[in-house]
Amino acid sequence: MKLPKIAVTMGDPAGVGPEICLKLLQNKDIAKICTPIIFGSFSVLTQAATQCNLDKPELVISGLSEADKPCVLDIGGIDLNELTVGTVNAKSGHASYTYIEDAINAALSGQVSAVTTAPINKEALHAAGINFPGHTEIFASKTHAERVCMFQYSSEVRAVFVTTHVSYAEVPSLITKANILNTIELGAQAMERIKGNKPKIVVLGLNPHAGENGLFGTEEQSTIIPAIEAAKKIGLNVEGPVSPDTAFLPTKRQETDLFVCMYHDQGHIPLKSLCFDEAVNTTLGLPIIRTSVDHGTALDIAGLGQANPGSLFEAINLAVKFL
Predict the structure, then answer these.
(1) Which of 139, 195, 261, 323 is the most buried (most CB within 10 A)?
(2) 21-36 pLDDT, tens per residue?
(3) What pTM did the predictor assign?
(4) Best CA proximity match to 298, nearest among 87, 15, 12, 13
């Protein structure tokens, strides 16, 4: 029985992506459940192997049909003389985008079963003239997905987000009943796929103390509660709105399968505080499976051999669970 092929984008060549991809290629446990294919640059990976004292890639392919064990699809995208490890530049931003595009196309055409992404640098992307806020928005655009949301998965906290990479000033106008209900539904579907039964879902309020019955804001009454009631009507096990400052207490985490967060930091702060090295970022609502590390390019340690590949390993494991 052939193992599923997982496209793994190398991420920004100037960051820790090449290092954690090299460590992935050496992971024997991962090789037992899938065939990871690094979409990236062989020359960059070879340089990273020397810098980080790691093994160089054993197998380099030119076509996906050749992939029968962990390997590198040599896309290139950047010359070594254009790259300064640990530094933001447009060339590396453009290269990281190229790997993502190629991986998405491979998944849409059925050549790979899923895509797992190493970190990109948003400043480098923008320097290259690629004006997406992040991976989530790139995948949504390239796959023409009608509704998507970010899903963060770890052993301690699982969370979906109504809004993600927007300023706080924009959040209230994006907290609509439809957006909240979509996020609840997508999160419920994902957790049921993982757990095999209906999840217990907790929806957070937007305002301090979940608005205190309108004293600190009206979003709870106007949009969040109506969305929760609509979710209950379609049979989902939903509670809320819960005050954000007590939602992630240990007892609450133990009894909650999924938290629905109104904005980025509401869920990312507790999740990264508790499970930084194992957290996985997933985009729900796509026609393909996409998981990702839940950390950035870490330019300050790029090329030093210090990067922890744990989040990448967990992202691969979650992608296989979704298959």
Answers:
(1) 261
(2) 999 999 999 999 999 9
(3) 0.88
(4) 15
